[in-house]
C-alpha cells in the first residue's frame, strides 16, 4: 500500500516505512512479511486474529521489536494493517504507547 520511494508500493513516502493492509477471511492463515532493519506493528481495524496463542481483537495491536512476527490466523473476517518502521524508540520512551496500545509483555510472541 505505502513504501519508501525505492519500493514497488503504489504510493510512496520519503521515509523508510511500509504500510500494508490485508482482509483475511475467517480461518485464513497468513505469513507476515519482513523488511530488513524495520520493526513490525500489526493493528486490527476490524475482526479478530490470533498470533500464536494471543488473541487480538478490533482496535488492538501486537508487535515484537526483537523477533519476526509469526503467522497470523483470522478467527473472523478481519481488516488488518501492518506498519513497518523504527518503532522501538516509541516503545522504549513513550508512556502513551505503552499504556494505550496493548503492548502486552505477559504474553511474549
From TrEMBL:
Signal peptide: none
Domain spans labelled Quercetin 2,3-dioxygenase C-terminal cupin: 2-83
Matching SUPFAM superfamilies: RmlC-like cupins
InterPro entries per the UniProt record, alphabetical: Quercetinase_C, RmlC-like_jellyroll, RmlC_Cupin_sf
Protein name listed in UniProt: Quercetin 2,3-dioxygenase C-terminal cupin domain-containing protein
